[in-house]
Protein backbone atom coordinates (compact mmCIF):
# COMPACT_ATOMS: atom_id res chain seq x y z
CA UNK A 1 0.00 0.00 0.00
CA UNK A 2 1.20 3.50 -0.70
CA UNK A 3 1.61 6.18 1.90
CA UNK A 4 -1.24 7.84 3.74
CA UNK A 5 -4.22 9.46 2.08
CA UNK A 6 -4.35 7.36 -1.12
CA UNK A 7 -7.57 5.51 -0.32
CA UNK A 8 -10.74 7.32 -1.32
CA UNK A 9 -13.36 4.57 -0.95
CA UNK A 10 -15.52 3.76 2.06
CA UNK A 11 -12.66 2.00 3.87
CA UNK A 12 -11.19 5.43 4.63
CA UNK A 13 -14.19 6.40 6.72
CA UNK A 14 -15.22 3.35 8.78
CA UNK A 15 -14.22 1.52 11.92
CA UNK A 16 -15.32 -1.91 13.05
CA UNK A 17 -15.48 -3.45 16.52
CA UNK A 18 -13.28 -6.49 17.04
CA UNK A 19 -12.75 -8.95 19.89
CA UNK A 20 -9.86 -11.44 20.09
CA UNK A 21 -8.97 -14.04 22.70
CA UNK A 22 -5.88 -14.42 24.89
CA UNK A 23 -4.32 -17.13 22.73
CA UNK A 24 -0.91 -16.70 21.18
CA UNK A 25 -2.44 -16.08 17.75
CA UNK A 26 -5.14 -13.66 19.00
CA UNK A 27 -8.05 -15.50 17.39
CA UNK A 28 -11.11 -13.48 16.44
CA UNK A 29 -14.10 -13.93 18.74
CA UNK A 30 -16.26 -11.20 17.20
CA UNK A 31 -16.08 -8.76 14.30
CA UNK A 32 -18.78 -6.25 13.37
CA UNK A 33 -20.07 -5.78 9.83
CA UNK A 34 -17.88 -2.84 8.82
CA UNK A 35 -14.85 -5.13 8.70
CA UNK A 36 -15.98 -5.88 5.14
CA UNK A 37 -15.67 -2.21 4.16
CA UNK A 38 -12.25 -1.86 5.75
CA UNK A 39 -10.47 -5.18 5.11
CA UNK A 40 -12.74 -6.96 2.66
CA UNK A 41 -13.51 -9.91 4.94
CA UNK A 42 -17.01 -10.89 6.04
CA UNK A 43 -17.29 -11.33 9.82
CA UNK A 44 -17.78 -15.10 9.50
CA UNK A 45 -14.51 -15.31 7.57
CA UNK A 46 -12.60 -13.88 10.54
CA UNK A 47 -14.22 -15.47 13.60
CA UNK A 48 -12.08 -18.35 14.84
CA UNK A 49 -9.09 -17.34 12.69
CA UNK A 50 -5.85 -15.79 14.02
CA UNK A 51 -5.93 -12.01 13.89
CA UNK A 52 -2.14 -11.96 13.73
CA UNK A 53 -2.31 -13.65 10.33
CA UNK A 54 -3.40 -10.27 8.95
CA UNK A 55 -0.37 -8.39 10.33
CA UNK A 56 2.40 -7.30 7.97
CA UNK A 57 5.33 -9.77 8.14
CA UNK A 58 7.83 -7.03 8.98
CA UNK A 59 5.74 -5.99 11.98
CA UNK A 60 4.61 -9.43 13.15
CA UNK A 61 7.16 -9.96 16.00
CA UNK A 62 6.54 -6.55 17.52
CA UNK A 63 2.75 -6.82 17.21
CA UNK A 64 2.80 -10.25 18.83
CA UNK A 65 4.85 -8.90 21.72
CA UNK A 66 2.42 -5.98 22.04
CA UNK A 67 -0.44 -8.50 22.22
CA UNK A 68 1.31 -10.24 25.11
CA UNK A 69 2.22 -7.00 26.89
CA UNK A 70 -1.33 -5.65 26.63
CA UNK A 71 -2.82 -8.74 28.26
CA UNK A 72 -0.15 -9.25 30.91
CA UNK A 73 -0.29 -5.55 31.79
CA UNK A 74 -4.12 -5.62 32.03
CA UNK A 75 -4.21 -2.46 29.91
CA UNK A 76 -7.21 -0.39 28.91
CA UNK A 77 -7.94 2.18 26.17
CA UNK A 78 -4.65 1.74 24.31
CA UNK A 79 -4.06 2.69 20.69
CA UNK A 80 -1.62 1.28 18.12
CA UNK A 81 -0.86 2.01 14.47
CA UNK A 82 0.09 -0.95 12.29
CA UNK A 83 -0.58 -2.53 8.90
CA UNK A 84 -3.22 -5.22 8.29
CA UNK A 85 -3.76 -7.30 5.16
CA UNK A 86 -6.75 -6.62 2.90
CA UNK A 87 -8.59 -9.62 1.46
CA UNK A 88 -8.03 -8.25 -2.04
CA UNK A 89 -4.34 -8.93 -2.81
CA UNK A 90 -4.25 -5.89 -5.08
CA UNK A 91 -5.08 -3.70 -2.06
CA UNK A 92 -2.07 -4.97 -0.14
CA UNK A 93 -1.80 -3.82 3.49
CA UNK A 94 -3.93 -1.10 5.07
CA UNK A 95 -2.50 1.22 7.71
CA UNK A 96 -4.91 0.86 10.64
CA UNK A 97 -5.51 2.37 14.08
CA UNK A 98 -6.13 -0.45 16.57
CA UNK A 99 -7.71 0.22 19.97
CA UNK A 100 -7.48 -2.40 22.73
CA UNK A 101 -8.85 -2.96 26.24
CA UNK A 102 -8.44 -6.09 28.35
CA UNK A 103 -11.88 -7.37 29.38
CA UNK A 104 -11.46 -10.38 31.69
CA UNK A 105 -10.68 -13.12 29.12
CA UNK A 106 -10.67 -11.23 25.79
CA UNK A 107 -9.23 -8.11 24.16
CA UNK A 108 -11.97 -5.73 23.02
CA UNK A 109 -11.40 -2.81 20.68
CA UNK A 110 -11.74 -1.51 17.16
CA UNK A 111 -9.95 -1.30 13.83
CA UNK A 112 -10.15 1.83 11.66
CA UNK A 113 -8.30 3.34 8.73
CA UNK A 114 -5.51 5.57 10.00
CA UNK A 115 -5.68 9.11 8.66
CA UNK A 116 -3.53 11.90 10.13
CA UNK A 117 -5.25 15.04 11.24
CA UNK A 118 -7.38 16.51 14.00
CA UNK A 119 -9.45 13.35 14.56
CA UNK A 120 -6.35 11.19 14.88
CA UNK A 121 -4.90 13.65 17.38
CA UNK A 122 -8.13 13.57 19.40
CA UNK A 123 -8.09 9.76 19.45
CA UNK A 124 -4.48 9.72 20.59
CA UNK A 125 -5.05 12.39 23.25
CA UNK A 126 -7.81 10.31 24.89
CA UNK A 127 -5.89 7.00 24.79
CA UNK A 128 -3.90 5.76 27.78
CA UNK A 129 -1.07 4.54 25.55
CA UNK A 130 -0.13 5.12 21.91
CA UNK A 131 2.22 2.77 20.02
CA UNK A 132 3.31 3.37 16.41
CA UNK A 133 4.67 0.16 14.92
CA UNK A 134 4.66 0.98 11.19
CA UNK A 135 7.93 2.92 10.62
CA UNK A 136 6.74 5.30 7.89
CA UNK A 137 3.73 6.33 10.01
CA UNK A 138 5.82 7.60 12.93
CA UNK A 139 5.96 11.27 11.77
CA UNK A 140 2.16 11.39 11.40
CA UNK A 141 0.96 9.51 14.47
CA UNK A 142 3.60 9.58 17.21
CA UNK A 143 1.78 12.21 19.26
CA UNK A 144 3.02 12.98 22.77
CA UNK A 145 1.39 14.75 25.70
CA UNK A 146 3.09 17.58 27.55
CA UNK A 147 3.76 15.36 30.54
CA UNK A 148 5.22 12.52 28.47
CA UNK A 149 9.01 12.11 28.59
CA UNK A 150 11.06 12.95 25.53
CA UNK A 151 11.49 9.96 23.18
CA UNK A 152 14.80 8.15 23.53
CA UNK A 153 16.98 7.82 21.61
CA UNK A 154 16.49 10.70 19.14
CA UNK A 155 18.37 8.85 16.37
CA UNK A 156 16.53 7.70 13.20
CA UNK A 157 14.80 4.34 13.26
CA UNK A 158 16.87 1.44 11.90
CA UNK A 159 15.66 -0.33 8.73
CA UNK A 160 14.44 -3.30 10.78
CA UNK A 161 13.18 -2.46 14.26
CA UNK A 162 14.04 -4.98 16.96
CA UNK A 163 11.58 -6.06 19.61
CA UNK A 164 12.92 -4.81 22.97
CA UNK A 165 14.17 -7.39 25.41
CA UNK A 166 11.90 -8.31 28.32
CA UNK A 167 12.88 -9.24 31.90
CA UNK A 168 11.08 -12.54 31.38
CA UNK A 169 12.79 -13.32 28.06
CA UNK A 170 14.29 -16.79 27.77
CA UNK A 171 16.80 -17.72 25.06
CA UNK A 172 16.11 -20.55 22.59
CA UNK A 173 18.91 -22.66 24.11
CA UNK A 174 17.27 -22.71 27.56
CA UNK A 175 17.65 -26.09 29.21
CA UNK A 176 14.63 -28.35 29.63
CA UNK A 177 14.77 -27.99 33.42
CA UNK A 178 14.66 -24.20 33.20
CA UNK A 179 11.79 -24.39 30.72
CA UNK A 180 9.81 -26.46 33.20
CA UNK A 181 10.41 -23.80 35.86
CA UNK A 182 9.40 -21.00 33.49
CA UNK A 183 6.39 -19.12 34.76
CA UNK A 184 3.24 -20.14 32.84
CA UNK A 185 2.38 -17.61 30.19
CA UNK A 186 5.78 -15.89 30.18
CA UNK A 187 7.10 -15.29 26.65
CA UNK A 188 9.82 -17.18 24.83
CA UNK A 189 11.64 -15.40 22.00
CA UNK A 190 13.14 -17.09 18.97
CA UNK A 191 16.08 -15.57 17.12
CA UNK A 192 17.13 -15.71 13.49
CA UNK A 193 20.63 -16.68 12.36
CA UNK A 194 21.74 -13.04 12.38
CA UNK A 195 20.55 -12.53 15.98
CA UNK A 196 17.31 -10.65 15.31
CA UNK A 197 14.26 -11.43 17.41
CA UNK A 198 12.03 -13.29 15.00
CA UNK A 199 9.03 -14.59 16.95
CA UNK A 200 7.51 -14.82 20.39
CA UNK A 201 5.56 -17.71 21.85
CA UNK A 202 3.57 -17.87 25.07
CA UNK A 203 0.92 -19.95 26.75
CA UNK A 204 -2.61 -18.65 27.03
CA UNK A 205 -2.56 -15.99 29.74
CA UNK A 206 -4.88 -16.12 32.78
CA UNK A 207 -8.03 -14.02 33.07
CA UNK A 208 -7.55 -10.43 34.17
CA UNK A 209 -9.68 -7.69 35.80
CA UNK A 210 -13.40 -8.27 36.17
CA UNK A 211 -14.76 -6.13 33.36
CA UNK A 212 -17.59 -6.53 30.87
CA UNK A 213 -17.88 -5.15 27.34
CA UNK A 214 -21.23 -4.07 25.91
CA UNK A 215 -21.94 -3.07 22.31
CA UNK A 216 -24.87 -0.67 21.95
CA UNK A 217 -26.90 0.23 18.89
CA UNK A 218 -25.76 3.81 18.25
CA UNK A 219 -28.60 4.47 15.81
CA UNK A 220 -31.35 4.19 18.43
CA UNK A 221 -32.25 6.75 21.07
CA UNK A 222 -32.59 3.99 23.66
CA UNK A 223 -29.21 2.39 22.72
CA UNK A 224 -30.29 -1.26 23.03
CA UNK A 225 -27.59 -3.79 23.96
CA UNK A 226 -26.60 -5.95 20.99
CA UNK A 227 -23.58 -7.79 22.47
CA UNK A 228 -22.35 -8.73 25.97
CA UNK A 229 -18.86 -10.21 26.43
CA UNK A 230 -19.52 -12.08 29.70
CA UNK A 231 -21.96 -12.49 32.60
CA UNK A 232 -19.72 -11.11 35.35
CA UNK A 233 -21.64 -7.88 35.92
CA UNK A 234 -24.87 -8.00 33.89
CA UNK A 235 -26.27 -11.39 32.78
CA UNK A 236 -26.39 -11.71 29.01
CA UNK A 237 -29.95 -13.07 29.06
CA UNK A 238 -31.07 -9.99 31.00
CA UNK A 239 -29.19 -7.39 28.95
CA UNK A 240 -29.61 -8.48 25.32
CA UNK A 241 -32.09 -6.38 23.38
CA UNK A 242 -32.82 -4.00 26.25
CA UNK A 243 -32.08 -0.31 26.46
CA UNK A 244 -28.70 0.42 28.01
CA UNK A 245 -30.44 2.99 30.20
CA UNK A 246 -32.37 0.15 31.86
CA UNK A 247 -29.08 -0.50 33.67
CA UNK A 248 -28.52 3.11 34.75
CA UNK A 249 -30.21 4.56 37.84
CA UNK A 250 -32.87 7.22 37.14
CA UNK A 251 -30.74 9.83 38.93
CA UNK A 252 -27.80 9.23 36.54
CA UNK A 253 -29.68 8.56 33.31
CA UNK A 254 -29.60 12.15 32.06
CA UNK A 255 -25.87 12.38 32.74
CA UNK A 256 -25.08 9.11 30.98
CA UNK A 257 -27.23 10.11 28.00
CA UNK A 258 -25.20 13.31 27.65
CA UNK A 259 -21.98 11.26 27.72
CA UNK A 260 -23.16 8.93 24.97
CA UNK A 261 -24.32 11.92 22.89
CA UNK A 262 -20.85 13.44 23.30
CA UNK A 263 -19.11 10.20 22.26
CA UNK A 264 -21.40 9.93 19.23
CA UNK A 265 -20.43 13.45 18.19
CA UNK A 266 -16.75 12.50 18.47
CA UNK A 267 -17.31 9.38 16.40
CA UNK A 268 -18.08 11.11 13.10
CA UNK A 269 -15.72 11.10 10.14
CA UNK A 270 -14.95 13.80 7.59
CA UNK A 271 -18.05 12.89 5.61
CA UNK A 272 -20.31 13.15 8.63
CA UNK A 273 -20.82 9.38 8.79
CA UNK A 274 -20.48 7.22 11.94
CA UNK A 275 -16.88 6.25 12.69
CA UNK A 276 -14.40 6.07 15.58
CA UNK A 277 -13.81 8.94 17.98
CA UNK A 278 -11.52 8.36 20.94
CA UNK A 279 -12.26 7.26 24.51
CA UNK A 280 -14.41 8.84 27.22
CA UNK A 281 -14.38 7.88 30.89
CA UNK A 282 -17.21 8.33 33.40
CA UNK A 283 -18.60 6.96 36.66
CA UNK A 284 -22.25 6.29 37.41
CA UNK A 285 -24.59 4.12 39.48
CA UNK A 286 -25.84 1.04 37.65
CA UNK A 287 -28.90 -1.18 38.10
CA UNK A 288 -27.24 -4.48 37.27
CA UNK A 289 -30.56 -6.37 37.44
CA UNK A 290 -32.25 -3.90 35.10
CA UNK A 291 -35.27 -1.64 35.34
CA UNK A 292 -37.86 -0.16 33.01
CA UNK A 293 -36.21 3.13 32.08
CA UNK A 294 -39.25 4.19 30.06
CA UNK A 295 -41.54 3.73 33.07
CA UNK A 296 -39.22 5.54 35.49
CA UNK A 297 -38.44 8.44 33.16
CA UNK A 298 -40.34 11.64 33.83
CA UNK A 299 -43.08 12.09 31.22
CA UNK A 300 -42.75 14.80 28.59
CA UNK A 301 -45.16 17.72 28.86
CA UNK A 302 -48.53 16.85 27.34
CA UNK A 303 -49.08 18.84 24.15
CA UNK A 304 -52.30 20.73 23.60
CA UNK A 305 -55.16 18.95 21.91
CA UNK A 306 -54.81 21.20 18.91
CA UNK A 307 -51.19 20.17 18.32
CA UNK A 308 -51.90 16.54 19.12
CA UNK A 309 -54.72 16.40 16.56
CA UNK A 310 -52.74 18.30 13.97
CA UNK A 311 -49.64 16.10 14.25
CA UNK A 312 -51.51 12.81 14.40
CA UNK A 313 -51.28 10.68 11.25
CA UNK A 314 -54.60 10.22 9.40
CA UNK A 315 -54.97 6.55 10.38
CA UNK A 316 -53.23 6.56 13.77
CA UNK A 317 -55.15 5.56 16.87
CA UNK A 318 -54.61 4.27 20.38
CA UNK A 319 -54.24 0.72 19.08
CA UNK A 320 -51.32 1.77 16.87
CA UNK A 321 -49.60 3.49 19.77
CA UNK A 322 -50.15 0.45 21.99
CA UNK A 323 -48.70 -1.80 19.29
CA UNK A 324 -45.63 0.43 19.00
CA UNK A 325 -45.21 0.48 22.76
CA UNK A 326 -45.44 -3.31 23.03
CA UNK A 327 -42.85 -3.79 20.26
CA UNK A 328 -40.10 -1.99 22.24
CA UNK A 329 -37.76 -4.68 23.66
CA UNK A 330 -37.24 -2.95 27.00
CA UNK A 331 -40.99 -2.59 27.49
CA UNK A 332 -41.95 -6.15 26.66
CA UNK A 333 -39.38 -8.96 26.53
CA UNK A 334 -36.75 -7.19 28.64
CA UNK A 335 -39.22 -6.21 31.34
CA UNK A 336 -40.52 -9.78 31.65
CA UNK A 337 -36.96 -11.09 31.93
CA UNK A 338 -36.24 -8.64 34.73
CA UNK A 339 -39.55 -9.51 36.45
CA UNK A 340 -40.71 -5.89 36.04
CA UNK A 341 -38.17 -4.64 38.54
CA UNK A 342 -38.59 -0.97 39.36
CA UNK A 343 -35.74 1.31 40.35
CA UNK A 344 -36.77 1.00 43.99
CA UNK A 345 -36.30 -2.79 43.91
CA UNK A 346 -32.69 -2.72 42.66
CA UNK A 347 -29.66 -1.87 44.77
CA UNK A 348 -27.42 0.44 42.70
CA UNK A 349 -23.82 -0.53 41.99
CA UNK A 350 -21.18 2.14 41.41
CA UNK A 351 -19.34 1.45 38.14
CA UNK A 352 -16.71 3.08 35.99
CA UNK A 353 -17.04 3.03 32.23
CA UNK A 354 -15.03 3.67 29.09
CA UNK A 355 -17.17 4.80 26.15
CA UNK A 356 -16.06 4.80 22.51
CA UNK A 357 -17.99 5.25 19.27
CA UNK A 358 -17.55 3.19 16.11
CA UNK A 359 -19.30 2.75 12.78
CA UNK A 360 -21.32 -0.24 13.98
CA UNK A 361 -22.11 0.78 17.55
CA UNK A 362 -21.08 2.26 20.88
CA UNK A 363 -18.56 0.22 22.84
CA UNK A 364 -18.90 0.41 26.64
CA UNK A 365 -16.43 -1.22 29.04
CA UNK A 366 -17.72 -1.51 32.62
CA UNK A 367 -16.14 -2.43 35.92
CA UNK A 368 -17.12 -1.93 39.53
CA UNK A 369 -15.76 1.24 41.10
CA UNK A 370 -13.77 -0.56 43.80
CA UNK A 371 -11.35 -1.87 41.17
CA UNK A 372 -7.83 -1.08 42.40
CA UNK A 373 -6.16 -0.26 39.08
CA UNK A 374 -6.89 3.11 37.44
CA UNK A 375 -8.06 3.40 33.84
CA UNK A 376 -5.45 6.01 32.98
CA UNK A 377 -5.84 9.17 30.89
CA UNK A 378 -9.07 8.65 28.96
CA UNK A 379 -11.09 11.84 28.51
CA UNK A 380 -13.21 12.49 31.59
CA UNK A 381 -16.84 12.88 30.60
CA UNK A 382 -18.03 13.75 34.11
TrEMBL record:
Superkingdom of the source species: Eukaryota
A Pfam entry, by short name: PAS_3
Ranges of Pro residues composition bias in the record: 150-161
Annotated signal peptide: none
PAS domain ranges (all copies): 19-74
Cited CDD domains: PAS
Listed Basic and acidic residues bias regions: 310-336
InterPro entries membership: PAS, PAS-like_dom_sf, PAS_fold_3
SUPFAM superfamilies: PYP-like sensor domain (PAS domain)
Renumbered residue ranges of the record's region Disordered: 147-192, 270-343
Entry protein name: PAS domain-containing protein
Species per Swiss-Prot/TrEMBL record: Jaapia argillacea MUCL 33604
Amino acid sequence: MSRLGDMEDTSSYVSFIGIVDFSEDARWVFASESCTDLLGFEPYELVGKPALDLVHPDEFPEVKKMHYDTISGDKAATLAYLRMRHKDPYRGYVLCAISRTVVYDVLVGSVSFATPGAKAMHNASTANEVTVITPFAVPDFEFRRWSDPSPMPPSPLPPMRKVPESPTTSEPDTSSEEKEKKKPGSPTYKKTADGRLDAITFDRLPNQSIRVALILDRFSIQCPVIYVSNDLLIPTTVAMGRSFYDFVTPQDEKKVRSWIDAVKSWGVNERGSPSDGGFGHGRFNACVSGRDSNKDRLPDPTPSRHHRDRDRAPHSNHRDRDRERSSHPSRKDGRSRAHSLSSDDVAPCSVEAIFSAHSDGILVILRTFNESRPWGRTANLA
